[in-house]
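User: Let's play a game. I give you a shape written as C-alpha coordinates, and you guess the letters that built it. Ready? Here's round one.
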Protein backbone atom coordinates (compact mmCIF):
# COMPACT_ATOMS: atom_id res chain seq x y z
CA UNK A 1 0.00 0.00 0.00
CA UNK A 2 1.39 3.39 -0.95
CA UNK A 3 0.70 6.52 0.95
CA UNK A 4 0.37 9.91 -0.57
CA UNK A 5 2.27 12.58 1.30
CA UNK A 6 0.06 15.31 2.64
CA UNK A 7 0.46 18.78 1.27
CA UNK A 8 1.10 21.12 4.14
CA UNK A 9 -0.72 24.46 4.33
CA UNK A 10 2.70 26.09 4.71
CA UNK A 11 3.79 24.62 1.36
CA UNK A 12 0.64 25.93 -0.31
CA UNK A 13 1.41 29.40 1.04
CA UNK A 14 5.00 29.13 -0.23
CA UNK A 15 3.62 28.29 -3.68
CA UNK A 16 1.19 31.23 -3.56
CA UNK A 17 4.03 33.50 -2.41
CA UNK A 18 6.24 32.48 -5.36
CA UNK A 19 3.34 32.76 -7.83
CA UNK A 20 2.53 36.24 -6.53
CA UNK A 21 6.13 37.38 -7.06
CA UNK A 22 6.16 36.00 -10.61
CA UNK A 23 2.83 37.64 -11.47
CA UNK A 24 3.70 40.95 -9.81
CA UNK A 25 7.13 41.50 -11.23
CA UNK A 26 7.48 39.25 -14.27
CA UNK A 27 6.12 41.87 -16.64
CA UNK A 28 8.63 44.45 -15.46
CA UNK A 29 11.49 42.41 -16.92
CA UNK A 30 9.94 42.87 -20.38
CA UNK A 31 10.01 46.68 -20.27
CA UNK A 32 13.73 47.08 -21.10
CA UNK A 33 13.26 44.91 -24.19
CA UNK A 34 10.18 46.66 -25.55
CA UNK A 35 10.28 50.30 -24.42
CA UNK A 36 13.22 51.51 -26.55
CA UNK A 37 11.82 49.67 -29.56
CA UNK A 38 8.32 51.09 -29.04
CA UNK A 39 9.66 54.61 -28.53
CA UNK A 40 11.62 54.42 -31.78
CA UNK A 41 9.25 52.48 -34.03
CA UNK A 42 5.84 53.46 -32.62
CA UNK A 43 6.14 56.85 -30.92
CA UNK A 44 2.43 57.53 -31.40
CA UNK A 45 1.66 54.51 -29.22
CA UNK A 46 3.61 55.82 -26.23
CA UNK A 47 0.72 57.61 -24.49
CA UNK A 48 -1.23 54.34 -24.51
CA UNK A 49 1.83 52.31 -23.53
CA UNK A 50 2.42 54.46 -20.45
CA UNK A 51 -1.27 54.41 -19.53
CA UNK A 52 -1.05 50.61 -19.81
CA UNK A 53 1.92 50.61 -17.43
CA UNK A 54 -0.14 52.57 -14.90
CA UNK A 55 -2.97 50.06 -15.26
CA UNK A 56 -0.62 47.08 -14.91
CA UNK A 57 0.82 48.67 -11.78
CA UNK A 58 -2.63 49.23 -10.29
CA UNK A 59 -4.26 45.92 -11.17
CA UNK A 60 -1.34 43.46 -11.33
CA UNK A 61 1.87 44.64 -9.68
CA UNK A 62 0.45 46.26 -6.54
CA UNK A 63 -2.15 43.61 -5.65
CA UNK A 64 0.17 40.66 -6.29
CA UNK A 65 3.15 42.31 -4.57
CA UNK A 66 0.83 42.92 -1.61
CA UNK A 67 -0.20 39.25 -1.69
CA UNK A 68 3.49 38.30 -1.75
CA UNK A 69 4.08 40.57 1.24
CA UNK A 70 1.19 39.08 3.21
CA UNK A 71 2.14 35.49 2.43
CA UNK A 72 5.77 36.28 3.24
CA UNK A 73 4.76 37.69 6.61
CA UNK A 74 2.78 34.53 7.31
CA UNK A 75 5.67 32.28 6.26
CA UNK A 76 8.25 34.15 8.32
CA UNK A 77 5.92 34.29 11.32
CA UNK A 78 5.00 30.62 11.15
CA UNK A 79 8.64 29.53 11.21
CA UNK A 80 9.90 32.43 13.37
CA UNK A 81 12.29 33.65 10.64
CA UNK A 82 12.08 37.42 10.98
CA UNK A 83 15.54 37.48 12.60
CA UNK A 84 17.07 35.89 9.49
CA UNK A 85 18.83 38.34 7.17
CA UNK A 86 17.84 36.25 4.13
CA UNK A 87 14.20 37.00 5.09
CA UNK A 88 14.65 40.60 6.22
CA UNK A 89 16.44 41.80 3.07
CA UNK A 90 13.71 40.59 0.66
CA UNK A 91 11.04 41.92 3.04
CA UNK A 92 12.62 45.40 2.97
CA UNK A 93 13.09 45.19 -0.81
CA UNK A 94 9.41 44.33 -1.27
CA UNK A 95 8.35 47.29 0.88
CA UNK A 96 10.68 49.57 -1.13
CA UNK A 97 9.27 48.26 -4.42
CA UNK A 98 5.69 48.81 -3.28
CA UNK A 99 6.65 52.34 -2.24
CA UNK A 100 8.37 53.01 -5.56
CA UNK A 101 5.26 51.84 -7.39
CA UNK A 102 3.03 54.41 -5.75
CA UNK A 103 5.48 57.24 -5.15
CA UNK A 104 7.69 57.01 -8.24
CA UNK A 105 6.52 54.80 -11.11
CA UNK A 106 2.80 55.62 -11.25
CA UNK A 107 3.20 59.42 -11.18
CA UNK A 108 6.06 59.35 -13.69
CA UNK A 109 4.31 56.96 -16.06
CA UNK A 110 1.31 59.32 -15.99
CA UNK A 111 3.67 62.23 -16.73
CA UNK A 112 5.27 60.30 -19.58
CA UNK A 113 1.84 59.57 -21.07
CA UNK A 114 0.95 63.27 -20.91
CA UNK A 115 4.31 64.35 -22.36
CA UNK A 116 4.07 61.81 -25.17
CA UNK A 117 0.52 62.94 -25.97
CA UNK A 118 1.64 66.59 -25.96
CA UNK A 119 4.60 65.81 -28.23
CA UNK A 120 2.54 63.73 -30.66
CA UNK A 121 -0.12 66.45 -30.86
CA UNK A 122 2.58 69.06 -31.49
CA UNK A 123 4.16 67.31 -34.43
CA UNK A 124 4.75 63.66 -33.82
CA UNK A 125 8.30 63.54 -32.43
CA UNK A 126 8.98 62.74 -28.82
CA UNK A 127 10.83 65.60 -27.11
CA UNK A 128 14.14 65.56 -25.26
CA UNK A 129 12.11 66.22 -22.10
CA UNK A 130 10.17 63.02 -22.74
CA UNK A 131 13.32 61.00 -23.50
CA UNK A 132 15.12 62.35 -20.41
CA UNK A 133 12.26 61.47 -18.09
CA UNK A 134 11.86 58.07 -19.76
CA UNK A 135 15.57 57.38 -19.19
CA UNK A 136 15.16 58.19 -15.50
CA UNK A 137 12.19 55.82 -15.20
CA UNK A 138 14.17 53.18 -17.09
CA UNK A 139 17.17 53.51 -14.77
CA UNK A 140 15.01 53.22 -11.65
CA UNK A 141 13.25 50.28 -13.31
CA UNK A 142 16.61 48.58 -13.93
CA UNK A 143 17.60 49.14 -10.30
CA UNK A 144 14.25 47.70 -9.22
CA UNK A 145 14.86 44.63 -11.37
CA UNK A 146 18.25 44.11 -9.73
CA UNK A 147 16.60 44.40 -6.32
CA UNK A 148 14.01 41.79 -7.31
CA UNK A 149 16.71 39.42 -8.49
CA UNK A 150 18.75 39.98 -5.33
CA UNK A 151 15.67 39.31 -3.18
CA UNK A 152 15.05 36.05 -5.04
CA UNK A 153 18.70 35.10 -4.63
CA UNK A 154 18.47 35.73 -0.88
CA UNK A 155 15.32 33.64 -0.55
CA UNK A 156 16.70 30.72 -2.55
CA UNK A 157 20.41 30.67 -1.67
CA UNK A 158 20.05 32.01 1.90
CA UNK A 159 23.55 33.55 1.76
CA UNK A 160 23.20 35.20 5.17
CA UNK A 161 21.63 32.27 7.01
CA UNK A 162 22.88 31.85 10.46
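Assistant: Ready! My guess for every position:
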Amino acid sequence: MTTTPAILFYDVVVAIHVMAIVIAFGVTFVYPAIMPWLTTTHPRAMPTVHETQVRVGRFVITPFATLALLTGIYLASDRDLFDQTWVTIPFVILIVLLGLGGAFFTPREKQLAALARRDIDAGGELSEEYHGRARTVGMVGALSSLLILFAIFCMVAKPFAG
